[in-house]
Amino acid sequence: MSNPSYKRVLLKLSGEVLMGEQQFGIDSEFVAELAKEVKAAKETGLEICLVIGGGNIFRGMAGAAKGMDRAQADYMGMLATVMNALAMQNALEQLGVETRVQSAVQMDQVCEPVIRRRAERHLEKGRVVIFAAGVGAPYFTTDSGAALRAAEMGCDALLKGTSVDGVYDSDPKTNPDAKRYQAVDYDTVLADNLKVMDASAVALCRDNSIPIVVFSIREKGNLARVLAGEGTQTIVQKGA
Ligand code: UDP
């Protein structure tokens, strides 16, 4: 893939990248660095939708494993994603990037509800739109939220910025011979249970022909490189 001609993208950041080097929570200095990357990408003329996870604060599955009611724990996870969205909005606006947060769980005093037409208008005006609270329902993840918003907003690609630099045929942390795919088909990802995003998110992207680009957001300047078709990444697409 070289010089992809994306006009509008959805950038999904897992909550854990907001921790920086911390073990938990939000490292505001690192969030400021991430915001610089987003600003640089926006300055190339791209329209940017953002979805941020909540795993740096709370994951429903972790709560359920400790005996909590799963749905209740998931609501807490969704609230965590709203906190991350507000932290990112703050960091972007400190850099002069106008940003709106739209939450799938309504909280009028804090941010807007998800309204697609209003989000369209924000993007037209050059604002970044952060979609918080995933799909707004328990038993889902923000990956599914990202796939849903990417489809709804007509994004040309879903960029998944995470801690690893792509998709491997086995876990690179435990297998030194693990191989990174340059490109891989959605169906291979699903059949081989490769760690990209959860299955419902991958299927939604497949059914709507939205390529998924997996890359490491931890390396400085990598988002710009990936957008230019350079840098280390894996693209999940049809026929790969
Ligand atoms: N969550 C949910 N429904 C959604 C999105 C998120 O219930 O549509 C909850 C779920 O508990 C999840 C948590 O929010 O574990 C945080 O999101 P996620 O695990 O996707 O964050 P990430 O792994 O990307 O940091």
Automatic annotation (TrEMBL):
Its EC number is 2.7.4.22. GO terms for cellular component: cytoplasm. It comes from the Bacteria. ATP binds at residues 12-15, 55, 59, 162, 168, 171. Residues 7-216 form the Aspartate/glutamate/uridylate kinase domain. It catalyses: UMP + ATP = UDP + ADP. Keywords: ATP-binding, Cytoplasm, Kinase, Nucleotide-binding, Pyrimidine biosynthesis, Transferase. GO terms for biological process: 'de novo' CTP biosynthetic process; UDP biosynthetic process. InterPro entries: AceGlu_kinase-like_sf, Asp/Glu/Uridylate_kinase, Uridylate_kinase, Uridylate_kinase_bac. CDD domains: AAK_UMPK-PyrH-Ec. Its main location: cytoplasm. Catalyzes the reversible phosphorylation of UMP to UDP. Belongs to the UMP kinase family. This is Uridylate kinase.
